[in-house]
Design brief:
Blueprint: E1 4-5, H1 7-12, H2 22-30, H3 36-41, H4 47-56, E2 60-61, H5 82-85, H6 89-104, H7 109-121, H8 125-143, H9 145-158, H10 163-167
Antiparallel strand pairs: 1-2
Helix pairs in contact: 2-4, 6-7, 6-8, 6-9, 7-8, 8-9
Length: 177
């Protein structure tokens, strides 16, 4: 099911107007062309409540309010589960940049610049994770191991499954029969 923005939503997104929260506004920006299930899965499942509130407040309209669309013959592309579709190296990389800015930019600008440069130079998953590990070690020193563990856990949620770990299955032939 696809939702559409109403005129009220378009006014909300115009420059100088800010009555909704940042999450509500970002969801409004993504509405057109996104399936309802993807929107509801946003923000660790809180997206469902945000969509419901936006519909109730008149920012979104659903297919019931629009003329019926013809049913598609068959889906041509199989979409991943909502949880998996949100995982990407780019998203994980942006999370590390954001973490660097929030935790180091003011407290230690030199260290923040070091991590920014290291993240820019990281060209693959392994080197990006090495930078992340170094950042989390600094977080553990400054804010404690628990804070570092929670940041590392969130990064793990953003990373796609490693192709190596998915494809790597060890089988041993029977030694004695």
């Amino acid at each position: 099911m696809l939702l559409q923005k109403t005129e009220k939503a378009r006014l909300e997104l115009s420059p100088g107007v800010r009555t909704l929260s940042l999450r509500e506004r970002s969801l409004l920006l993504l509405v057109d062309g996104k399936p309802l299930s993807d929107l509801q899965a946003m923000y660790n499942g809180i997206g469902a409540q945000i969509v419901e509130n936006l519909m109730r407040q008149g920012y979104l309209t659903g297919p019931a309010d629009l003329p019926p669309a013809p049913e598609p013959a068959a889906p041509s592309i199989e979409r991943p589960a909502p949880g998996e579709s949100l995982r990407s190296l780019a998203g994980a990389r942006m999370y590390l940049f954001d973490t660097c800015e929030r935790l180091f930019a003011r407290r230690d600008p030199v260290l923040a610049q070091h991590f920014r440069e290291a993240l820019r130079a990281a060209k693959d998953r392994s080197s990006m994770l090495d930078v992340g590990d170094a950042m989390f070690e600094e977080v553990a020193l400054a804010a404690g191991a628990e804070r570092a563990a929670s940041l590392r856990e969130r990064l793990d949620q953003l990373l796609p499954a490693s192709p190596v770990t998915e494809a790597f299955v060890v089988t041993q032939p029977a030694l004695l029969e």
